[in-house]
Amino acid sequence: MMHFEKIILFFFCLCQVTLMYPNELLQNSYLRKGISLNGRWHYIVDVYENGYYNYRWEPHDGSENPGSGAFFLNSKPKDKMDLVEYDFDAAPTINVPGDWNSQKEKLFYYEGTVWYKKSFNIPNYDPSKRYYLHFGAVNYRADVYVNGKKLGTHKGGFTPFNFEMTGLLTAEDNFVVVKVDNKRSKEEVPTLNTDWWNYGGITRDVTIYELSPTFIENYRLQLNKNNPEIISGFIQLNGAQKANTDVSISIPELNLEEKYTTDKNGYTKISIASKNLRYWSTKNPKLYKVKLSGGSDQVEDRIGFRRIETNGSSILLNGQKVFLKGISLHEENVMRGGRAYSMEDAKILLGWARELGCNFVRLAHYPHNENMSRLADEMGILLWEEIPVYWTIEWGNQNTYANAENQLKELIERDKNRASVIIWSVSNETPLSEERTTFLTRLVHKARAMDDSRLISAALEDHGKEDDPNIMVVADPFAEELDILSFNQYYGWYGGDINNIKNIRWEIDIDKPIIISEFGAGALQGYHADNLTRWSEEFQELLYQETLPTLARIPQLSGITPWILVDFRSPRRMLIPIQNGWNRKGLISETGNKKKAFFTLKNFYSEMDLIE
Ligand code: GCU
Q1: Where in the chain is the domain with CATH 2.60.120.260?
Q2: 471-494: pLDDT as tens digits
Q3: What are the start and end residues of each CATH 2.60.40.10 domain in the chain?
Q4: What CATH number does the domain located at 20-211 have?
Q5: In the chain, ranges of CATH 3.20.20.80 domains
């Protein structure tokens, strides 16, 4: 083989290798002008993954000459004799973004593979530009192909990812094929068992970004945690001209403009002094327009600057003590059905939280779509964001850890510039073991290494003392790794007598803020009975009436996020006629009707405002 041919082969192989994993996340794709691929996509349900494997169970993917059955080729018969046993263009269509469970009745319970196909043109296609394909999220595994070439694979159902597809496109008649597989399995994150619906599909926006040869790939801008008069962070360029390149950042409203030169890796630190910054807060969610330019690229963002820290058992926002009047919520638009994904969905959910009197929301149990953190920035609502390290994860499996860490990384990369996000949570209700504590501690260290400006927590569990069940404790060695001690407690619903709630107390000897990350009771909206009848609105109301003042006696209490804002679908909740596949702990029903306990919590928060 000639020397020249060896070089070509090397770069071809390198290209293949680099194509298999997503590229670094394009920061702030949200405000970039892109080509949306949202809309109707053709889909093929492939229970036996016949479009991926041949009859000997050998993958077409990656083979030198994939068989005619390889769905990612989007093949058409060459002539009337030719055999092609699938046809995307004759297949039905489905909305993207959106889960398949709530769109197609036959797919309501479906867990498996669905193939999606979308044809597209690139207006004013410019081969000198670079092209990225960005997904807000796909649940759970996505294998992505463009014009029959594999871009790569992504696992994790709730975080964004993008692939570069430069050189693979033409001005017209392109097609993207995505194999989506939402099967659960023990070693995944989450694992087999969750208390939420396993909505599968391309559940968030899909967008093509046309980028200049050298562009702004990433940046971070937040108030310096040690000096509130300095904005610090970095800019990272990507491209052939990334090294020793001038970049600039301006905040017009502050008459600030600073120039930097990137290092050999296209990176530069940022440090901007400003004495007249108006800090972002819940009462004054001030956002500044920030303009960044580098290479031949310009991006704009809207960023709030604030400090969040703890002092003993207090949480301080810009140095002022704050009590987190919160609520938990899942990512569902229950009236439309299925996964929430739009700004309209976000306005419904955060609108209800605001109506409740909340200044804080726990986005359980996985990263929600970016509209939530963007809207929370605008509304002045603080956020707890979480990765789905939930219940019985395979703690000893290194692939499982790598997956969890990657989802944490993708979440932090996406939302690190969002003032509303104050807490990264690495887990929920995980059983104690050495392997589990090692696994979670590694995640905490990763989160701190990526972002030392926010607080780290996790939803732990409490239990009653042997010798006195009225005394509750949180005996968890992992607590010492956390900035905030949070735990879920269900006294009066899962165990314990609702009439005894007033007599319980917690013995927690820790000088850290405490958040009660869950408590609650199920109630079927509209079912009324005496307040000791389980599933009645009155029972749920009584539990809130008894629990709230009892929690208030915890000296370190700095926040609560009761479980949960809205009833949500769960395959674990099959009590007919009460649950019918819904977890009924919501304060609002799936028809948008408020239960009596909604007003109990609302009053509790409004009385707290009077004290503040
Ligand atoms: C747990 C868990 C939730 C679940 C809730 C319940 O605390 O964290 O995901 O939905 O209890 O049982 O309703």
Answers
A1: 20-211
A2: 999 999 999 999 999 999 999 999
A3: 215-306
A4: 2.60.120.260
A5: 309-521+557-565
Domain 309-521+557-565 class in CATH: alpha beta
Backbone angles phi, psi at 549, to 5 degrees: -65, -30
DSSP-assigned letter for residue 582: E
Burial bucket for residue 441 (CB in 10 Å: 0-12, 13-18, 19+): middle
Q: Which atom of ligand 1 is nearest to the CA of 490?
A: 7
Distance between CA 529 and CA 536 in Å, rounded? 6
The rounded distance, in Å, linking the Cα atoms of 113 and 257 is 50
CATH fold label, 215-306: Immunoglobulin-like (2.60.40)
Ligand 1 centre distance from Cα of residue 199 (Å): 18
339 lines ligand 1 (CB under 6 A): no
d(CA 71, CA 85): 9
Strands (E), 224-354: 230-238, 246-251, 256-261, 267-273, 288-294, 297-303, 308-311, 314-317, 320-321, 324-329
- Of the candidates 187, 198, 194, which has an alpha carbon nearest to the alpha carbon of residue 393? 187
Q: How does DSSP classify residue 350?
A: H
- The overall pTM is greater than 0.85: yes
CA of 17 to the centre of ligand 1 (A): 41
pLDDT on residue 62: 82
Is any ligand 1 atom within 6 A of the Cβ of residue 430?
Answer: no
Find out whether the beta carbon of 428 lies less than 6 Å from any atom of ligand 1: yes
* 233 contacts 221 by C-beta, under 8 angstroms: yes
